[in-house]
């Protein structure tokens, strides 16, 4: 029995056989050729085939891992077509008289060195991509099949030194118990994919890559961060029992995928998913989300150097709306500010960012910025059941002003004959005590409320949600918070406005009965929590 420790990329416990994956290095001998035209033809055909493959991978990855993750294949397409890279290969063929495959391998080496020598995370990732695209081209020149999925007859614990993005996304998901990589980080594509598929994953092992473990029985305990090879009888027995219990529970819960969460007293509460972008969709759909209750669109603005264009956003919202096939998709306009900083917007430094320039407060100042997002959302409303949700609302005038801007967009789109849903509903988040207290007035302006308990807690208790030093003052079940929620729900009911919760308290087991009692219409939670929550409602 041998235990290898690593970093947990996604929690889980599995027992199975290890399948070692490694890319056989293709030996390309230095070969001089006379017929350069024929080598150029081989190269052109391989480029075309590679681009076709990448197009297919892009479509597959969009479904498996979401639009954002799939973008890597668009990048690969651009890299294959890159003029400098292509010129280098063609020069090797035409001037050096190298075979097409050898010419690509030389270009791979050269560009890999250039990118890898740059002391920058972005470029070292591009170095990996150069290898990825070059290997694809070489295989296509030589007519070698991409055999990555071959040999996966049973579900396995996939073990690799590292996985290239295309390899990760090319793996047949039905054959996977878990993914373990000797290298890699929790931010790697592998980790992200494992999370989006919700399978156990360990990365960054404390032991070097070892091909000899292929076929061995192993336990991946991705609760404890351990890969245990050749476990002894006692451990095997324990783990089998644990897995059996987990499996039974999972199977029981899976039955609830299409069930309606109706409590014992007959109250029906819809269970929706919160998403940050389209890559969270597969798990939401797998777990039977009845809709998207919170699409945190600010994530489309984070982690980049410039604003996402209206077109980029439109595509993302349209994609989600279409994937949800007519189910509600509540798109929250961006909640930038406080902890969600966007450097390129050059917003001023503030003494109290959480009480400062944030969300709707930015939107109502920079109306061009706001309208560009609203236009993308409203245009996408033609393709599904999209609703608009405004964050950090404190007062009626803010809603009125936002609605005026929405009207302006309606007129602009009509003038240009661009289709959209003119009946698109507008709702608000209830995230401040002020909003909860005047919820009777706010209800007259909107179609729905969604309580953001994360912020409602911080603002009600004056306890910064980022500050762990004051954790013991953060009583998430504080009577004041429950009272504000009750009041909001009552005002919503009184005015015929739908009421939901999309903050973390939505999935809090101690509050399920509270939501039933106060007749909440829906609870929107992280995709992984949907089934547990349905189960609790049904049994309450
Ligand atoms: C909330 O405040 O509860 C909420 C859902 O919004 P966020 O966590 O994105 O601030
Ligand atoms: Mg909030």
TrEMBL record:
Binding, Mg(2+): 431, 455
Binding site for phosphoenolpyruvate: 296, 332, 454-455, 465
Annotated localization: Cytoplasm
Keyword Transmembrane found: no
Enzyme Commission code: 2.7.3.9
Primary location recorded for the protein, binned into one broad class: cytoplasm
Cofactor: Mg(2+)
GO biological process: phosphoenolpyruvate-dependent sugar phosphotransferase system
Active site: 189 (tele-phosphohistidine intermediate), 502 (proton donor)
Name this polypeptide is given: Phosphoenolpyruvate-protein phosphotransferase
Organism the protein comes from: Fenollaria massiliensis
Gene assigned in the entry: ptsP
